[in-house]
Amino acid sequence: MLEVNPRASRTVPFVSKATGVPLAKVAARVMTGRKLKELGATVEQVPGYFSVKEAVFPFAKFPEADPILGPEMKSTGEVMGTGRTFGEAYAKAQAASGVTLPRNGVCFISVRDRDKQGAVALARKLIERGFEVLATSGTAKTLQEAGITCRRVNKVREGRPHIVDMIKNDEIDLIVNTTEGKQAVRESNSIRREAVHRRVTYYTTLAAGLATCEAMDHMDDVEVNRLQDLHKEGARA
């Protein structure tokens, strides 16, 4: 066990807004001796919509900061997107956090060994949505063996022109780069730094890349919902 945080931090207000259940109020009343049954809080609330919490990071304001995530807290706030589908909710959350999702262009994919098969599914989804795929040698070999067309690009240590040169030349629209081990993290630092500087949408997990594909299909969904109305739907259900 690393630590225990007995507090109502960011997740509690998010879940309360997503479900319409005022968890902090319920918890406070339980601590005074009230029963959950009295408070009508014994039935799980399953909304008929999706809610996505997205952290907001200050990397654009701190160009020397490394955007790769670790155990320390780097976020400075959070936003929430809601929608009838996961893709719609995720697209709204990304927009609210200041991330610009590309509609097409060139996507650079470079992943660690255990993510390579997942990269095949990601590349297929991106190509279906009009993207051209670039990859470093190991990832490119896996994609080509799966019958996926992709261009190979040099890593920084493999000589120029390399991927950072392409980012500097505004030739890259989306990056999905997963790393493992100190050397790989160190080598990809220049990619992350330049991507932040050029405001290129950058993901460090396959899951985020796949979620982005779903979000791309809902970027024009502009339905606005009041949380109060969504909560009423849940109450009726």
Which features would summarize this protein structure in a list?
237 residues; alpha/beta; 5-stranded parallel β-sheet; two-stranded antiparallel ribbon; 10 helices; 7 strands; elongated
Helical region count? 10
Low-confidence stretches: none
Strand order of the largest sheet: 5-4-3-6-7
Number of strands: 7
Q: Structural class from helices and strands?
A: alpha/beta
Description:
There is one protein chain. With 237 residues, the chain is of the alpha/beta class. 39% of the residues lie in helices and 14% in strands. The strands form 2 sheets. The protein has a 5-stranded parallel sheet, sandwiched between helices. A two-stranded antiparallel sheet has the order 1-2. The chain starts with 10 loop residues before the first helix and ends with a helix.
Give a brief outline of the structure:
This protein is of the alpha/beta class and 237 residues long. It contains ten helices and seven strands. Helix 3 packs across helix 9 and helix 4 packs parallel to helix 9.
List the helices and strands and how they pair.
Blueprint: H1 11-19, H2 23-31, E1 50-56, E2 77-83, H3 86-96, E3 105-110, H4 116-128, E4 131-135, H5 137-145, E5 151-152, H6 163-168, E6 174-177, H7 182-187, H8 189-197, E7 201-203, H9 206-216, H10 227-236
Helix pairs in contact: 3-9, 4-9
